[in-house]
Amino acid sequence: MTILKVSRLVKRFGGLTAVDGVDFEFPKGKISAIIGPNGAGKTTFFNMITGIYKPDEGAIELDGKSIVNIKPHQITELGIARTFQNIRLFGSMTVLENVIVGMHIHLKAGLFGSLARLPKVRHEEEEAMAEAYRLLEYVGLEALLNEQANSLPYGAQRRLEIARALAARPKVLLLDEPAAGMNPRETSELIGLIQRIQRELDITVILIEHDMKLVMELSEHILVLDYGTKIAEGGPDEIRSNPKVIEAYLGKSAILPETEKAEVTT
Ligand SMILES: Nc1ncnc2c1ncn2[C@@H]1O[C@H](COP(=O)(O)OP(=O)(O)OP(=O)(O)O)[C@@H](O)[C@H]1O
């Protein structure tokens, strides 16, 4: 079953076509990946799904309903949450506060209610705190809940971004290079976390990643972009042995030293 479907999707920036007629169906409840060289159009693709960019052509459907022309915060409410390639936390806020911010779409009280300190509001705040704590436990950051976000090590900041995205209670979680800058131990912990999110929380995960070990270990379905076009799609084994993908992207790992092969940077 498909949860998210894009058809003939196009995005142009002036004379450059960043995404050029891409069709793809993301299966519900699975982990999919989008791979390809730098500049292939992966982040632009995410930005269209999340409403940051409006496609020039084509359709995007979540559960069979169009989400083109819908504002980013409404798309979050419909069930799509994301993390960013360059971490975007509120650096001077605490770890806990960052997760509570991610919940705002589900908090009903609003400003007036908060100022008036109504009992109903206090109850809602307590519930939000409890849920934020549970999410921090889930990603393994509960011991750091009162730390300032920008004081956390890099890998922990990436996990905090995931907790904040989960706070929106998404059906689909988009992760833009979640392993970037992580050491091998942090990356294997991240692989475990993403698997738990998919299996235990029943969330569809779509990730952009250059770390091929992570991509091949996690993904059931892979979309390969090159110069904005889809050059291949399929399971990890098909993708690994696809000549077009090897030529455009994966082949580059063959010339890297053994220690760097897991991370194909272009
Ligand atoms: N806002 C923008 N204005 C103009 N050009 C853009 C804009 N955003 C992206 N591009 C261009 O579109 C192309 C695709 O960029 P995009 O960031 O989507 O690639 P990517 O596959 O995510 O690359 P990377 O792996 O480096 O993150 C690039 O040539 C980029 O320079």
Automatic annotation (TrEMBL):
Look up keyword Hydrolase and say if it applies: no
Give the GO molecular function terms: ATP binding
Q: Name one Pfam family in it.
A: BCA_ABC_TP_C
UniProt xrefs under InterPro entries: AAA+_ATPase, ABC_AA/LPS_Transport, ABC_transporter-like_ATP-bd, BCA_ABC_TP_C, P-loop_NTPase
Enumerate the spans annotated as ABC transporter domain. 4-252
Keyword list, A-Z = ATP-binding, Nucleotide-binding, Transport
Q: Which CDD domains match?
A: ABC_Mj1267_LivG_branched
Instruction: Give the protein's recorded name.
Output: ABC transporter ATP-binding protein
Q: Which organism is it from?
A: Paenibacillus haidiansis
